[in-house]
Specification:
There is one protein chain. With 435 residues, the protein is α/β, with parallel strands linked by helices. The strands form 4 sheets. Strands 6-7-8-9-10-11-12-13 form an 8-stranded parallel β-sheet. A 4-stranded mixed β-sheet has the order 3-2-1-4, with no helix packed on it. Strands 5-14-15-16 form a 4-stranded antiparallel β-sheet, with no helix packed on it. Bound molecules: fe (ii) ion. The site of fe (ii) ion has 5 residues, from loops.
Length: 435
């Protein structure tokens, strides 16, 4: 007897009419047209069943703090950092936990079940670290929260940051972070990369650094990150986040850099919603997009994910935990409009970030965790186009969220009373409500 059988599903790789059988929180079989007794059966009606969304780059200590203590007037990265500095002394653990848990609720509703969040370690009290470790423990039954020790004010620039970062790792934070472009000089940035990668190598930790988050075409920290990764044998364990300066770098230099990054098996996280709003702020016109070179990095064989980065915080006033919104913005900013590239944008918020996080048991295959999202779309491209409704979200075989299908009811003569945004006949029909 199965616990759950999902039938007639379309999978992200294009297989149709697929059944997914679940027992004991794991997927035990995936094949077409399976019928077997189960405690719960769901007809997916030919719609998309995907592994859950994964966000490889977020700031859960700042989320939902928009307007505290004031709004970012210029909208720039540097005013955001200054504003966060004003807010930090006012933070309480209770408020941090409450906001983070609220965001995790939003995430679950959108089928986002794994998040890598940076947590600022530059406050000597490590309040945010304690709060997010508590949140990680509380959400563990339904959401994987991976934490990065992030020295927001610079690990060399802020006098206690390195000691705090090591304390945070000892408390249970998973990943070593950094922000070399915020150190005082390019040389200090390179030194910070070396020190932090050596720390990660000593402690067997993954690395994820905010790196070259500027429009400076001469910023060179990702080169240092690739070099240290290769020197210390950290291949496949290091992520460069943002890398927005690559947008502005000289093309010849990038042709050399891509090979160095591929040699080190670096991963990359672009944050399209944030990059498109924060970068290019010193430009008149033409104004640069600022997002890193996503298609070229992927073509060089690197894992490139799209992250959300911020939701309603000092740096970004919008957002809702919807990784399809993130993918849609990434698709537009990178001009990834071919069929293959649009599918790649869906992978950039699902399977690729799952690899970057080293998430165990991720995927729609036998033996994987029974975690998946049922979308009101027939394929990944339609899911991005519609930012499709999450009809159901399952974690370890248990449905933990569902949303009614999106329908529009028209009051127009000679037109049907109901319209679907999916042009062909497949999918939920007028008046139907998927179970
Ligand atoms: Fe960030």
């Amino acid at each position: 007897m199965l616990d759950l059988l999902v039938t007639n599903a379309t999978l992200p790789d294009g297989r149709r009419g697929m059944s997914v059988a679940v027992r004991g929180g794991r997927i035990v079989e995936v094949r077409p047209g399976l019928s077997a007794p189960a405690h719960d059966t769901v007809d997916a009606q030919g719609l998309l069943l995907s592994p859950p969304f994964v966000d490889a780059h977020f700031h859960m200590d700042a989320t939902l703090s928009y307007g505290l203590p004031r709004v970012n007037q210029s909208g720039t990265l540097l005013e955001g950092i200054a504003l966060w500095g004003e807010l930090k002394p006012q933070l309480t653990q209770e408020a941090l936990v409450e906001r983070a848990l609220a965001y995790c609720d939003w995430a679950v509703a959108k089928g986002l079940l794994a998040i890598r969040s940076h947590v600022d370690v530059c406050d000597d009290r490590l309040l945010a670290v304690e709060a997010l470790l508590e949140v990680k423990r509380r959400v563990a039954p339904y959401l994987d929260l991976q934490l990065v020790a992030f020295p927001q004010d610079g690990v060399l620039r802020a006098p206690t940051a390195m000691a705090n970062l090591e304390r945070a790792l000892a408390m249970g934070v998973d990943v070593v972070g950094g922000i070399p472009h915020f150190e005082r000089t390019m040389a200090h940035g390179a030194e910070s990369v070396r020190l932090l990668c050596e720390l990660a190598a000593r402690q067997g930790k993954l690395v994820d650094m905010h790196c070259d988050e500027s429009d400076d075409p001469l910023s060179r920290h990702v080169e240092a990150l690739a070099f240290e990764t290769q020197r210390l044998g950290l291949h496949g364990r290091v992520t460069g986040s943002h890398l927005t300066s690559m947008h502005s770098m000289d093309n010849y230099y990038v042709s050399k850099l891509l090979a160095l990054m591929a040699e080190a098996r670096l991963s990359v996280v672009a944050n399209p919603l944030i990059n498109i709003t924060l970068q290019g702020r010193h430009d008149s016109y033409p104004r640069r997009r600022g997002m890193t070179r996503v298609p070229e990095l992927a073509a060089a064989g690197l894992d490139v994910a799209f992250g959300h980065d911020c939701v309603m915080d000092p740096w970004y006033s919008l957002g809702s935990g919807d990784m399809l919104e993130v993918a849609q913005m990434g698709l537009h900013v990178a001009q990834m409009t071919s069929q293959a590239a649009m599918r790649q944008c869906f992978d950039a918020v699902t399977s690729v970030p799952a690899r970057i996080l080293h998430l165990p048991g991720y995927g729609l295959a036998e033996g994987c965790h029974a975690d998946f999202v049922w979308l009101q779309a027939r394929d990944p491209i339609e899911a991005i186009r519609l930012r499709a409704t999450r009809l159901g979200v399952w974690r370890r075989g248990r449905r933990i969220a569902h949303t009614a299908p999106a329908t529009a009811h028209l009051a127009l003569e000679h037109r049907p009373a109901f319209t679907s945004f999916m042009p062909a006949a497949a999918g939920p029909q007028a008046g139907q409500t998927p179970a």
